[in-house]
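--- STAGE predict ---
source: upstream dedup step, 1 unique chain passed
mode: sequence only
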Amino acid sequence: MSQRILVVDDEPHIRHVICFAIERAGLACATARNGAEAMMAFRRGHIDLIVLDIGMPEMDGLDVCCQILFLSARDEEIDRVLGLEIGGDDYVTKPFSPRELVARVKAILKRTGGDVRRENSLAAGRISLDRGGRSVRFGDIPVALTALEFSILETLIARPELVFSREQLMEAAYGPGIYVADRTIDSHIRNIRAKFSAAGAPGVIVTVHGIGFQLSPDAEGKA
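--- STAGE serialize ---
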C-alpha cells in the first residue's frame, strides 16, 4: 500500500498543486480544507504524514498540530513526530517549490521508517484494547464500552503514568471544539469503573483530586 499523505490547506489551488506533486511521486494523497477535517482524517487512521498549513481560519495549523501531538503522545510516539517547537518535523514557507516539498516529505518518511501511525492494540497488565476491533478485555473477559468510554480508556491506557484532566479526556472523547459539562466525564468514568468491576477489576481508574484521572497501577495487574 502506498504511503498516504494528508494535505491540509484552506486554499483549493494549493491542495491541488501539492497533491499533484505527491501523486506523481508515487504516494497517495488525502485532503482536508480546515483543522476540523484534518482531525477527523487523522482519527480515522492510515495517515503516514501530514502537510499542514498554519494560517487557516477557525482552527489554525498550530492548534491542529498540538492536538495531533496530544494523540500521538498517548502512544509514546512523540519522538517520531516532534522536531520543531510547534511539533512538526519540518517547516516550509510559502511560496514553495512542490518538488522541494515532495523531497522533504520523502526524507521524513525515510527517517521515520514511513510509519508514524498508532499501534493497533494497547495493553496494561491484564487490560487489553484493540483499536481496529474497538474491543476491550480484562484477561479473557470482554468489557463492552460505548464509543466515548472506549476513547477515554484508550487515552488512559496509552499513558498510564500520566494524570489526565477532565478537559484532556473531554477532547479525547468528543474531539476538539466540543464542550460538555465536566460532570459528563465523571459519568463516563463511573460507567467504565462499573463495567470493569463486573469483569473482576474494581478500581480500574483512580481519581487524583484537584487534577483528574489516571489508570490505577493496581488495576493493571490484578483484580
